[in-house]
Design a protein that fits this description.
The protein has 550 residues and is an alpha+beta fold. It is 51% helix and 10% strand. It is built from 19 helices and ten strands. The strands form three sheets. Strands 4-5-6-10-7 form a five-stranded mixed beta sheet, with helices on one face. Helix 3 packs across helix 8, helix 11 crosses helix 16 and helix 17 packs antiparallel against helix 18.
């Protein structure tokens, strides 16, 4: 080992860890038992999802009970004649459910729909309880105390306690903010109850979406932003920003060999235009079979006798432009596009000897989204938006007051929203970091009210029975990972990139050298601490949400 390079040492260490985690050190009988447990878990995961897919329940409402829903909600909707009256059929599919919960004015309607939605897969509680038990048996067989200890070992957090400590700090500082936001929502509901002569009896889960939506519509308007985000202009300005940040030059290829006429191909060079980095494709417009925006790593970069250059593609599904009008994006689409382009550059700029450590796929699950989240969050910065957002007709920069409205809309309800995420992550650790038998549904309901601040009003519900996060093998014990990434990205963004007086190109090159080029060849904990010059913390993340009590 002493004669190996650092990257080759890491390869050996990771291979040994991967083999051990898959049972290579077990006896033949123990390995056979591990195989049986893995097969049972696969069956349970499939069964859990099948139950959700096959239990699309339907409920009947009169038009009056659906007051507040737009006319389009009723177009082509099934109607049944019940006792001489007409009732509309509403299903628990996402399109029906979330629109109703956002807009139905009658609490009785929202409550009825909430109960139908969250009582339709009750047998999944048993499936989840069984999976929790089997994962605990598997962890013990492999020499771990709990499944959470097994699951977090190869990631940045390393231990359940480290993840729990981060979540506890977030909860402590978000609870005050969430309580203030809840008071605002309660005031809206009290006013509604008073207006119809009803007694206010509390604020419940079925009220959350409706009143959050109502408050947002009253206070924030971002509908007139699209004219500042035309797709060709946004792409051009994002390319310029990436070139400045990472010291590269993007060159569009003429007449490239591509799979469709909409596809464009680019070469990526160092800023001096003498050193080739790789090339990537963009395929932005709708065609049958395409769906959400995504990045595909076509070839990993690595060093053999010569450099093998990376190739990747970004694929999206934007509507094609009209002859006289370019594609105009919503801000959420701009944010997503910036992040996915960041994933392209994360893959392109990685410089590892081994393909195993190249790009996004090689990073720890609780760090992989960190670089992407930093770049997405650029799209909320007034300084960056001034460079990206231009009116597609006049070329004028986006007005400052619109940027302020955008930022206000982002922070609206952030306390309650993130408390919900903290609850789900804490619950995930609670069920998988206990050596004792747990009842998944009972624990879910008790922790939900305690941490999220909003109860289910004493109703018997089985919300956890339709949440696949906790049974999927890729996510079990790792719900915390997204919050971990967001905390670290906020720390990097506000402490480094957006710090007053800082040259962003210098910061960008340092980030490229220390973090992006390393890929998975180094522990991301070490790279992050080296880049920051200290251990990461939650301060920037909490301050960005308005939780300034720390």
């Amino acid at each position: 080992m002493d004669s190996l390079s650092d990257e080759n040492k890491r390869l050996v260490q990771q291979m040994e860890l991967e083999y051990r985690r898959k049972g290579a050190a077990l006896s033949e009988d123990e390995f056979n038992e591990l195989t049986k447990l893995n097969l049972k878990l696969e069956e349970l995961e499939v069964s859990f999802q099948r139950n959700i897919d096959s239990r699309d329940e339907k409920t009947l409402f009169t038009r009056g009970e659906l007051e507040g829903l737009p006319d389009t909600y009723f177009k082509d909707r099934e109607i049944r004649d019940i006792g001489g009256g007409k009732k509309y059929v509403v299903s628990t599919c996402s399109a029906d459910y979330y629109l109703l919960m956002n807009h139905a004015q009658l609490e009785s309607t929202r409550r009825a729909m909430f109960l139908v939605q969250n009582n339709r897969c009750t047998d999944n509680v048993h499936v989840l309880n069984t999976a929790i038990q089997i994962r605990q048996e598997k962890a013990k067989l492999l020499g771990y105390e709990t499944h959470a200890e097994y699951a977090l070992e190869p990631h940045m957090a390393k231990t359940p306690q480290a993840a729990y400590d981060m979540l506890t700090e977030l909860r402590k500082n978000l609870t005050e903010l969430g309580s203030k936001e809840l008071e605002q929502l309660e005031q809206l509901k009290r006013a509604d109850m008073h207006a119809v002569g009803k007694i206010y009896e509390g604020f419940f889960e079925w009220d959350r979406s409706f009143y959050a939506n109502k408050l947002s519509n009253q206070n924030f308007s971002t509908s007139n932003l699209r004219c500042y985000f035309s797709l060709p202009q946004v792409i051009r300005n994002m390319f310029e920003l990436y070139q400045t940040l990472f010291g590269v030059t993007i060159v569009e290829m003429e007449n490239p060999r591509v799979w469709h006429e909409d596809v464009e191909m680019y070469e990526l060079w160092e800023a001096d235009k003498e050193t080739f980095v790789g090339h990537f494709y963009t395929d932005f417009f709708h065609r049958p079979g395409k769906s959400r925006i995504s990045v595909h790593n076509i070839r990993s970069g690595y060093n053999d006798e010569t450099r093998q250059y990376p190739v990747c593609a970004i694929v999206a599904c934007f509507a094609k432009p009209e002859p006289s009008t370019p594609v105009l994006l919503h801000h959420t689409e701009v944010e997503m596009l910036m992040g996915e382009l960041g994933r392209v550059f994360q893959n392109m700029l990685c410089k590892t000897k081994l393909a195993k450590f190249h790009g996004c796929k090689a990073l720890e699950q609780d760090f992989v989204e960190t670089p992407i989240q930093i770049l997405k969050d650029f799209m909320w910065s007034p300084h960056i938006l001034d460079k990206i957002a231009r009116h597609y007709k006049t070329g004028e920069s986006i007005p400052h007051d619109l940027v302020q409205q955008l930022q206000a809309a982002k922070s609206n309800g952030a306390g309650l929203s993130y408390l919900r995420q903290v609850f789900l992550a804490m619950y995930d650790l609670a069920i998988y970091n206990s050596a004792d038998t747990v009842d998944a549904n009972t624990l879910f309901n008790s922790m939900n009210t305690d941490i999220s601040l909003i109860s289910c009003g004493g109703t018997r519900t089985f919300v956890v029975a339709k949440l696949g996060y906790f049974i999927k093998h890729t996510l079990a014990s790792k719900y915390y990972a997204h919050l971990w990434s967001q905390v670290n990205s906020a720390d990097i963004l506000h402490s480094c990139f957006l710090k007053d007086g800082i040259d962003m190109s210098e910061v960008g090159m340092a980030f490229r050298t220390i973090v992006l080029e390393a890929g998975g060849s180094k522990d991301s904990t070490d790279g992050l601490s080296m880049f920051l010059g200290r251990e990461p913390n939650t301060r920037a993340f909490l301050c960005s949400l308005g939780a300034n009590s720390i």
